[in-house]
Amino acid sequence: MIIEDLAARRVGVVQGGGLSSLALGIWLRERGVDAHHYVADLGQSGPDDLAALVDSLRTAGLPATLVDLRPAMAALGLDLLRYQARHDGGYWNTTGASRLVLVEQLAPVLRADGRTVLAHGCVGGGNDQRRFARYGARLAPDLGVYAPWIDPAALARFPNRAAMYSAVTGAGLWLDPGSDADRSTDANLAGASHESTELEDLATPVAPKTLTPRWSAWPADAPADGGSVTVTIEAGRVTDVGGHGADPVAVLTAANDLGATHGSWLRDVVERRIIGTRCRGVYEAPGLEVLDVAWHKALEVTLDPYSRALYEQLGGALGAAVYEARYRDPVAAAARAALDALTASVSATVELTLRGGAVTAAGVRTPGGDTDRQTRFGTGGHQWRDLAPAAA
Questions:
Q1: pLDDT band per the 50, 70, 90 thresholds, residue 7
Q2: How far is 96 from 127, CA to CA, in rounded Å?
Q3: How many Cβ atoms sit within 10 Å of the Cβ of residue 306?
Q4: Distance CA 136, CA 114 (A)
Q5: Which of 4-13, 86-95, 184-193, 230-239 has the lowest average pLDDT?
Q6: What pLDDT shows up at residue 313?
Q7: What count of other Cβ atoms lies within 10 Å of the Cβ of residue 192?
Q8: pLDDT score of 374
Q9: Quick one: pLDDT at residue 124?
Q10: What kind and span of H or E run contains 254?
Q11: Which are the contacts of 228, defined by CB distance < 8 A and separation ≥ 6?
Q12: How far apart are CA 62 and CA 80, in angstroms?
């Protein structure tokens, strides 16, 4: 689909405040396209920033509506944890997961508003352009998908990020603080992906001079006295973090605050892209990094070895499906069903300590009536002792 195909179409723009998405809005306005911006709140920014984005779009003559997608994003983010759906053994797939949420949740909104084309600003030929294409074809085949950076006319208008940056700042649009001509940050409630021309060089260290975290403190700057929290897992789902309740948004928000405060958040991964190339990815997921320690301890004390082996095999397959935008394919649905069955018995209360970027399990309790036991971990090994039956 090229710009001429949009002449008689009503377009819905997926908008998050990143540089290329804002440049897309300018491009469509210049070409007289009937476009409405759907500002997706995935938890990437606070409410004040998103309100500023909406206001700046409207002031620039770009109609905009804020859509709260945090519940769907949080639920899928916690499924990444539950299924261990990582890519290449490290990346939590937060960006790939958000593309599913955007298409799945925004398609009904676009239809209700009479929009027949979904437009996004992802780089042509990259992972995300393919993810939007795949999810669009599977979940919203009635909507056309316009990817501007594979349209020759759009590329001629904006040949690089410097041209985009000049146009976006000149139009007075609110720009995500993690984006400029040399850097980009794709964030949501589950985590943030950091890219820059400097970080593309594997010799560049991930350090304060080369990376600005989205939310998190560097381990050296974390509180010296550390902290602790109790995480509750019931029937394979995290149901509480420090007393904040079972709502997925509350769970991830509480875990994010802990990981960010105590410096537990960083993954530096060389990953295989959909197109087969390898690249460096620097990822910030403080909440998932904290919850991962509790989740693994719960698995250790609940799953038998054969279940654990199948769990890890299926988790790897599902991680690839998330990365490659195949999460709604039949094979991924089958993997999820099997993982749901395997994790149905995973229930535990895990005490965590956090200090200087490290998260450790200090104790775990599993329900089981007369066989209920608690483990306490210390420098001298561990001890088992019987406990009273867990409260119902």
A1: very high
A2: 8
A3: 8
A4: 17
A5: 86-95
A6: 96
A7: 23
A8: 53
A9: 79
A10: helix 248-261
A11: 351, 352, 353, 354, 362
A12: 35
* E runs forming strands in the chain: 10-15, 34-41, 64-68, 117-119, 144-146, 183-188, 191-196, 227-234, 237-241, 266-272, 278-284, 348-355, 358-366, 373-378, 381-386
Q: Return the structure tokens found at 261.
A: 């405060």
Residues near 293 by beta carbon (within 8 Å), at least 6 away in sequence: 350, 352, 359, 360, 361
Half-sphere exposure of 44 (CA within 13 A, CB side): 31
Residue tagged 């794709």 (tokens): 186
CB 151 within 8 A of CB 160: no
C-alpha–C-alpha distance, residues 21 and 15, integer Å: 6
**Residue closest to 232 by CA, chosen among 307, 297, 289, 286:** 297
The candidate with the shortest Cα–Cα distance to 253, out of 173, 263, 305, 243, is: 243
Question: Which one-letter DSSP state was computed for residue 374?
Answer: E
Q: Find the radius of gyration of the CA atoms of the chain.
A: 22
HSE-up of 389 (CA within 13 Å, CB side)? Answer: 5
Q: Is 9 exposed, middle or buried, given 0-12, 13-18 or 19+ CB atoms closer than 10 A? A: middle
- pLDDT for 243 beyond 90: yes
**Strand 227-234 relative to strand 348-355: parallel, antiparallel, unpaired?**
antiparallel
- The structure tokens 């250790």 sit at 300
298 touches 122 (CB < 8 A): no
> What is the token pair recorded at 254?
């509480």
Would you tell me how many other CB atoms lie within 10 Å of the CB of residue 379? 4
| pLDDT, tens digit (0-9, with 9 covering 90-100), for 97-156 | 999 999 999 999 999 999 999 999 998 778 999 999 999 999 999 999 999 999 999 999
145: β partners: 118
When the pLDDT of each residue in the chain is averaged and rounded to a whole number, the result is 92
DSSP helix/strand/coil, 253: helix
Which residues lie closer than 8 Å to 301 by C-beta, 6 or more apart? 348, 364, 366, 375
385 pLDDT band, cuts 50/70/90, is: very low
Q: What is the pLDDT of residue 275?
A: 78
Q: How far apart are CA 307 and CA 313, in angstroms?
A: 10
How far is the C-alpha of 194 from the C-alpha of 187, rounded, in Å?
A: 9
| Other Cβ atoms closer than 10 A to 158 | 23
pTM: 0.92
pLDDT at residue number 370: 34
- The residue among 31, 36, 41 whose CA lies nearest residue 4 is 31
Half-sphere exposure of 137 (CA within 13 A, CB side): 8
